[in-house]
Amino acid sequence: MKKNVIEKLIGLSYLMRFDKPIGTLLLLWPTLSAFYILTEGKPDPILLVVFSLGAFLMRSAGCVINDFFDQDFDGKVERTKERPLVTGAVSKNEALILFCVLLAASAYLLTWTNKFTFLMACLGVFLTSFYPLTKRFFSFPQAFLGFAFSWGIIMVSAAELNSLNLATLLIFLACFFWILAYDTIYAMCDKEDDASIGINSSALALGNGVKVSIFIFHILSLIFWCYVGLYGGLDTIFFFTLFLSFLFVIRQMFLIKDYDRNKCLKAFKDNNWIGLLIFIGTFLGS
Length: 286
Hints:
By secondary structure, the chain is mainly α. It has a single domain (2-285), classed as UbiA prenyltransferase (Tetracycline Repressor, domain 2, Orthogonal Bundle). The chain has 14 helices and no strands. Helix 2 (22-38) packs parallel to helix 14 (271-285) and helix 3 runs parallel beside helix 6 (115-134).
C-alpha cells in the first residue's frame, strides 16, 4: 500500500515536471525582472515570494492540463511517450484533481494582491488552459504560449502599480518574442513527430525559414529589452547583460543549424541563462 502511494506521488510529480525546473525558471526570471524594473529596484518582498510560488504552481498546472489534453498525441511522440498519463501511472481523473488543487493554491496566493491582479489572473488561467488546444487548429500555437508565459508581467504591474504602463508593455513584448524564439526551438525537437500526427507548431509553420525566424525573434526581444533599459534609466550593467545574452543567441543558432534533436533541446535549455542574465542586469541596474 505504501509503495503504491509513493509510486503515485512520483507519477504526479513527473506530471508537474518537478524533475524539470527549466519551465519554471523561464517563467520566473522575466517576472522577477519586471518587479525590479517597474518598482525602480524596490519591489514588495511579500509579492516577490507570492509570485515566485505562483510561477511554480501555474507552470505545474500548465503542464498537467497540457498532458491531459495531449495524452493521445504524447504516446506517438518519442520525447513524450513515457509521460505519466501515457504510461498509466496517473489517471485522467487524478490529473484533473491535481490541476484543480494547483489552481486553488494559486488562487489563495492572490489573496495577498488586489482586485486588478485577480482579474488579470483569471485571464491568465484561461490562456494557460486554452494553449494546449490551439495545437489542433492554429498553425502558430507558440503565439498563445507567448501570451500565457508573458502574462506574469501584466500581473506584476497590476500587483505593484495597480495599473499598466509603457514599461509594462515593453517588458511584455520583450518576453513574448523571447518565448516565440525558445519555444520554436523546443518545437524543432518534435518537428517530425508533430508532422506525422497532425499537430501544429511554429517549427512546422515557418518551414525552411525557421532558423532565420528564431534569430529575428531573439533580436526583437533584445531590442525591446534595450527600450526597457532606456525608458527605465537602467545602469550600464543591464546593457552589458543584454550583450552577453546576444552571445548565447549566437550559440543557439550554431546548435540548431543541423536540426539535431538533442542539440535543439540543449539550445532551448540555454535560454535559462539568458533569462538569468537579464534578471541580474535588472537587479544590479535598477
